[in-house]
Amino acid sequence: MKVLRYLLKKEFRQIFRDKTILAMMFAMPTIQLIILPLAMNFDVKHVKLAVVDNDHSSYSRQLINKIGASGYFKTVAAAPSFRTALTYIEKEQADLVLEIPMGFERNLVREGEQKLGISVDAINGTKAAIGGSYLQAVVIDFNKQLPINTANAAPPSGLINITWSNWFNPLAEYRFYVVPAVLVLLLTLIGGFMSALNIVREKEVGTIEQINVTPIQKWEFILGKLIPFWVMGMIVFTLGLAVAWGIYGIWPVGSFITLYVFAAVYLVALLGFGLLISTYTNSQLQAMFVAFFFVMIFMLMSGLFTSVDSMPPWAKVIANLTPVTHFIKVIRMIVLKGSGFADVYPELLYLAIFAVVLNGWAIFNYRKTS
Amino acid sequence: MSAVVLDHITKTYDDGKVVAVDDVSLQVAEGELFGLIGPDGAGKTSLFRILTTLLLPDKGSATVRGYDCVKDFKAIRSRIGYMPGKFSLYQDLTVKENLDFFATLFGSSIEENYDLIRDIYEQIKPFNDRRAGKLSGGMKQKLALCCALIHKPEVLFLDEPTTGVDVVSRKEFWAMLKSLKQQGITIVVSTPYMDEAMRCERIALIQGGKIMSVDTPDNIIAQFPVTLYAIKADDIYRLLTALRNEPAIDSSYAFGEYIHITLRNGSDIDTLRQQMEEKGHAHVAAKAIRPGIEDSFIRLMNQA
């Protein structure tokens, strides 16, 4: 135990001595947590619209005004023809083209029927789909208020009237969804990267050689590496929660104890992952690349941006094979929904399995002799 | 009992493609100052790593103080001190912290074995609070030696301890080794410098993973089988080219301002000198000299 205590002392001493790394460990999560969720906003606003009005009637003007008043669209051009309007899309100056055909008002009044053309730039799929449907919604609304429809008086009976409310995130604000997940990601970076790089550095500098000829036990050395980063990780996690509350007003609905239990187990799993990388690599550069490879997968497949449920089956399998997915799921449940331990304990089981497998594999693979 | 025994040790890398150590057997006596002398890439470090339990040999067995290097690695690790060729202490820890750290790992303390390291430690003590990375080369080497000694090892392995260290520090270092030897510690040291070989009690000349000769430096020199001559002229390079084409010459190589040569049977140095002068070499001087360890090494190397 005396040896372990001294190992920890040495480890902390080194961490606190490297001011750059120390600053990065605390500044990085804070800054990123403040900036990233603001930028990672999936609410579609400022859809750029080019209008081709071939009718120039009061109806067409009403429709264009209504679209402008909705707040989601910015009319960037009123083009004389569809062909010129399309050039705006080609130059990326417009996302949508709305074409109002000649005789728009006349046909509506006389025939009670008229078609509209909407062309969408689908390079940015999300923006295209959402922008398109917003525009459709505005047109439908416009349609309802037309005298031809309102004049018909008596609303049709049996119309289903939908009222709806957002649970757990009343205003459906994206930040509530993203902030807890970004926090998990930052914890992953600290836990996975720092531990891997730290051990590989000992290999690179050659100090591990000197350690290996001492009678120090394998478990002492490994614990001596894991504990400091576990502690740092917990501090970063706390810091992250504080930022989430201070900047975004996100205060976990569920219990802190459950949250911290999960964070603790998650960090053990992550540190095992870092340790595993370090046993297979010989330089910090190698470790960095391998860690990056996995962190990219973690980021894109863990449900941080996209819902795991809507992934194809094979991707779902991969997603479930990363510890990150489970923790992101849980942290959202606890923070936003207030899920209790009974609701989330299966996920804890998953994380525990990750912790045991990753650490066991790493310890098995760590050898003092080559 | 021998402190270190190597018995037909072979080590290869890259699935047997590179042979680092080729069937090496040797013994180091208790309390001996033993030198492994050979050029870079001769296999010295591989041997050290096998003896310090960091590397598993492919074939053969090795023991340190009677403990097997593979089976009893734990017993060995607490009984040896190892100073790798590359400085491998924590550069971001101070002198004192490094020393404390390694003492603790061995379940000891600086005070416990202070006597052993006093002479060396006193020299770096003024820099106790300086980080190891900021020390000069000679200081680093002294600190590394202190760290290797802090647990009072029975056998000390020093892998090229004087490489990259200035002449004065090298001299000091060998004086330190001598005093350590007097305290009963067996020391195995490797070096690529031939002049340092003379400071060892016994040496092994190693080349290409093979041991060429093991003996005291004096004996190795005494075994030099023929007379060695040193010869020079005004244009030393022209002389060397001429000698290389001379049938009477057995071997010739430049050595400082002279060319060292050995002759074939039946040739004699005076005739050779005359021949050279006749060929237009000015101021040819030749004399018989006592071979050095380097001459022995070169001769053994050429025979192999």
How would you describe the overall organization of this protein?
The complex is a heterodimer of chains A (370) and B (304). Chain A is of the alpha/beta class and 370 residues long. Chain A has helices at 2-17, 19-39, 58-69, 82-90, 104-111, 125-144, 147-150, 174-205, 207-212, 218-248, 256-280, 284-301, 313-320, 323-337, 341-365; strands spanning 47-53, 73-79, 96-100, 117-120. Chain B is of the alpha/beta class and 304 residues long. Chain B folds into two domains: 2-214, 3-Layer(aba) Sandwich (Rossmann fold); 224-303, Alpha-Beta Plaits, CATH 3.30.70. Chain B contains eleven helices and 14 strands. Chain B has helices at residues 44-51, 73-77, 95-105, 114-124, 137-149, 167-182, 194-197, 217-222, 236-244, 269-278, 293-303; strands spanning 2-13, 18-29, 33-37, 59-64, 67-68, 80-83, 155-159, 186-191, 202-207, 210-215, 228-232, 249-255, 258-263, 285-289. In chain B, strands 6-7-8-3-9-10 form a six-stranded mixed beta sheet, with helices on both faces. Chain B has a four-stranded antiparallel beta sheet with strand order 2-1-4-5. In chain B, strands 12-13-11-14 form a four-stranded antiparallel beta sheet, with helices on one face. Chain A binds chain B through residues 2-3, 6, 10, 13-14, 17-18, 205-207, 209-216, 368-370, and chain B through 52-56, 73-74, 77-78, 80, 82, 84, 86-93, 97, 100-102, 104-107, 147.
